[in-house]
Design brief:
The protein is α+β, with helices and mostly antiparallel strands. The protein is 28% helix and 21% strand. It has 27 helices and 29 strands. The strands form six sheets. Strands 1, 2, 3, 5, 7, 8, 10 and 14 form an eight-stranded antiparallel beta sheet that branches. Strands 15, 16, 17, 18, 19 and 20 form a six-stranded antiparallel beta sheet that branches. Strand 22 and strand 23 form a beta hairpin.
């Protein structure tokens, strides 16, 4: 009998194991973590995080914790692998951290153990390398698990409850002091009558979910009289109203439909998304167009983002949307009393979620218990809510999830979960690949960049520009990156790196390169001998690339991309993004040569907008570029960091300077190409020309020459200039003394030679250099002492000061 029972147990175990092996491989690793008081089990994309002192690996845990991840490492190729990271790593039961191990292709059992001691910042990022690729973070795409234990479902239910508490804005009525929750603010009602009529408002208030399944607004007014009065009051809230729209136009509506399907509206309002059915029964094209131009002004939650639509585009989309009608919204509402409706709005809790500016003495009079005092079977959470409690029509599972969260609230900020919460809240996965394909499909060169490796790729300063300041890196795409409002998505700037286990902030940089190094390195991005013709596919300083494919602007890459990721990308782009059009230039080169060329590209890119003009730049892109060849160029212009009366001079040998005619003095000097004058000449013009090289000298903010007293700023008067060998000799009066100044290229090195001729100064002449830290100054008439040079007064004075970059 004992043998039989043993056989049965073994057989059942084998069946269970076989079932586990046959279960589909799911993304992520199963993590089990504890802080001594709580234990949680959850699925994490990878064993990575970067934590501040008060942050944890999971919001249910305090910052001091231990954690173990289990799952599989799915190898498509066998070989020798080395895994590194601040944790213990086991593969197929054998410890493998920090040492080469031979692994066969296929699924390898993976276990990672980590213990955090103390509240100091902590970072974990597992990296690997092999005999056929360089060190890199282990991508989440090779990690997976078969079956998650039942405990993971309990943790997921708590997280689901938290999501509902935030989305339903429970904390608007049920205060939660000191919690980590962020409620969802409703639209501003101050001018709601401009965009919604009384009929629509009455029927919407009856039950928002009858008209929009995804609505989070509850039923708060059970009485038809209350709804009629509130609708009458709200419909009367108008300002000046939108400007009258042109007569409806079928062509404009058709254009609106095209825009709706291409700029990004489909991401949230496509099949299965937030329905826009019946929009024409709610509002007018003019009112909707005004809203679409800046939705954040009405809905600060960011759920309806700003898409940088022009007035014409907004009107076209609005005309398309208002063609849809819903008869249920158009049935006449009972007549209401606006004065009574005003009190209904105040007493029913509307102002807990909605703002109402200029409401005078209107105050919210609705009160409710604190969040930590709620009883799951009562009020809003009751199966059939009664009394004044709002009715959300929650399912049993939703009520259970909220109850589970209320019984176990979060205790710590947790970057990994916070990142994915925000990504889900603003529907990033509709357009971007993130732990799975994007919901929408795109044509070649129209897909937004994938996000799994973005934390290792992008600098925080660049993410801030994209998320908070409408920066676009792919202007050729029809799809537009939404602007959700800085108050809503600002945390993502740091969370991208933290959830990936990358170093927060800007990441590594390279040592500042000299202009000569940048000039030499710049040849590699152009056409011709030694060039890789990057200019064929990438934009350059805002100008379109020369080829059919368009890649991001090269002059912005260094500010955008972290150096270590950039080098990985250049070395083997298809390893990071399979199917990319970016060629693998270096795969067949000797390693030392490949590394040298990759470093050259990084050096060139580090110059940003001051990169040398690459050979092969299109004629259209060069139309507004002033480039010095064999002869000097003198150009009077509006230019950056100088007065409107400025004269820019480009000298052969890539030495350039700006002379300020208003103050009669040298402003600065730079090495590299000369000027981009598109801001001055293109469109309406009037903007400042941009220098194309790298500054090596900035003069002090005062005149260098003094007559008699080195501490007295002289009075100046510009007298013009004459060309000597095509180089301008400037003439100006200095305290009544005529000065001639000729600025030429220094005889050797990188710098300028300033030749001064003064007519009968009658007093000692001083050259005051100021704090010239990055240059060396020499003179033909003595030596500098504490940054000052004294030339004895005479009938005529002539001397030369050479400024050489260190």
């Amino acid at each position: 009998m004992k043998r039989f029972l043993t056989f049965v147990v073994v057989a059942l175990w084998c069946v269970a194991m076989a079932g586990a092996q046959n279960a589909p491989l799911r993304p992520g690793l199963v993590a089990t973590a504890s802080d001594g008081a709580r234990k949680v089990t959850f699925v994490a994309p990878a064993a990575n995080f970067s934590l501040a002192a008060d942050q944890s690996a999971h919001p249910q845990l305090k910052p001091v914790f231990s954690i173990e991840w289990n799952g599989v490492l799915n190898l498509v190729r066998g070989g020798t692998y080395t895994i590194t990271g601040d944790a213990r790593v086991f593969i197929d039961g054998q410890e493998a951290q920090g040492k080469p191990v031979q692994l066969e292709a296929g699924e390898r059992a993976l276990r990672v153990q980590y213990e955090r001691k103390g509240n100091a910042p902590a970072r974990l990022q597992l990296q690997w390398q092999s005999d056929f690729f360089k060190p890199e973070p282990i991508p989440a795409s090779v990690l997976g698990h078969r079956n998650a234990p039942a405990e993971a479902a309990k943790t997921a239910a708590i997280e689901r409850g938290r999501h509902l508490v935030e989305e339903l804005n429970c904390i608007a009525c049920h205060k939660a002091g000191g919690s980590l929750l962020q409620g969802r603010q409703g639209p501003d009602l101050s001018r709601v009558g401009e965009r919604a009529n009384a009929n629509w408002l009455f029927h919407w208030l009856e039950n928002p979910r009858h008209f929009r399944a995804a609505a989070v607004m509850p039923v708060v007014l059970a009485s038809a009289n209350d709804r009629a009065d509130a609708a009458a009051y709200l419909a009367g809230l108008k300002g000046n109203g939108p400007v009258a729209a042109p007569a409806p136009n079928a062509g404009r509506a058709a254009r609106g439909k095209e825009l709706f399907n291409t700029v990004g509206c489909q991401a949230c309002h496509g099949e299965g998304g937030v329905s826009l059915a019946g929009m024409g029964s709610k509002t007018t094209a003019a009112a909707l167009a005004k809203y679409l131009e800046n939705p954040l002004a009405v809905d600060p939650s960011g759920r309806m983002p700003h898409l940088a639509l022009s007035g014409e585009e907004a009107l076209a989309i609005a005309e398309h949307l208002v063609t849809a009608r819903n008869g249920g919204f158009e049935k006449p509402a009972p007549p209401g009393n606006p004065a009574r409706g005003r009190q209904v709005v105040a007493s029913s809790g509307c102002l807990n979620c909605h703002t109402l500016k200029d409401a005078g003495d209107l105050k919210n009079t609705f009160t409710a218990a604190a969040l930590n005092e709620l009883q799951p079977a009562r009020g809003c959470l009751a199966e059939l809510s009664s009394g004044r409690a709002p009715r959300y029509e929650l399912s049993a599972n939703e009520r259970g999830a909220i109850a589970a969260f209320l019984a176990s609230p979060d205790v710590s900020p947790a970057p990994v979960q916070d990142f994915h919460r925000l990504a889900a809240r603003f529907n990033c996965v509709a357009c971007h690949e993130l732990n799975g394909p994007a919901k929408l499909s795109f044509e070649v060169n129209q897909a937004p960049p994938p996000l799994p490796d973005a934390g290792n790729k992008l600098r925080a300063a660049w993410l801030d520009q994209v998320l908070n300041h409408h920066k676009r890196i792919r202007p050729w795409m029809a799809l537009r990156m939404p602007h959700f409002g800085p108050d809503n998505v600002a945390p993502l700037v740091q969370l991208f790196a933290q959830q990936a286990g990358a170093e927060p902030g800007q990441g590594a940089t390279i040592a500042a390169a000299s202009p000569e190094e940048i000039q030499a390195a710049g040849k590699i991005i152009g056409q011709g001998e030694g060039g890789l013709s990057c200019i064929n596919c990438h934009d350059f300083r805002g100008e379109k690339s020369g080829g059919e494919m368009r890649g991001p602007d090269m002059t912005e890459m260094y500010a955008r991309i972290r150096v270590d990721w950039l080098k990985r990308w250049l070395r083997e782009p298809s390893r990071i993004q399979p199917g990319t059009a970016m060629p693998a230039f270096f795969s067949d080169l000797p390693e030392a040569q490949a590394e040298r060329m990759i470093q050259q590209i990084v050096v060139a890119l580090s110059a940003g907008s001051n990169m040398p003009i690459p050979q092969g730049l299109s004629e259209a892109a060069q139309e507004y570029l002033l480039l010095v060849k064999d002869e000097p160029i003198t150009f009077r212009t509006f230019i950056q960091d100088s007065s409107p009366r400025s004269i820019a001079v480009g000298l052969p040998g890539a030495q350039n300077f700006c002379f300020d005619a208003e103050f009669c003095r040298l402003r600065y000097a730079w090495t590299g190409d000369f000027l981009d004058v598109k801001p001055v000449w293109a469109n309406r013009g009037g903007a400042q020309a941009r220098i194309l090289g790298v500054k090596f000298y900035t003069a002090p903010d005062s005149h260098s020459l003094r007559i008699g007293d080195p501490g007295k700023e002289p009075a100046v008067r510009f007298k013009g200039y004459q060309l000597i060998n095509k180089i301008p000799e400037f003439m100006y009066e200095l305290d009544g003394v005529l000065v001639r100044e000729l600025i030429a290229k220094a005889p050797t090195g990188r710098g300028l030679a300033r030749k001064f001729t003064l007519s009968a100064p009658g007093k000692d002449v001083w050259y005051v250099a100021g704090a010239a830290r990055d240059v060396t100054l020499t003179s033909t008439a003595g030596k500098f002492v504490d940054g000052k040079l004294k030339i004895p007064g005479a009938q005529n004075v002539q001397f030369e000061v050479t400024i050489l970059a260190k």
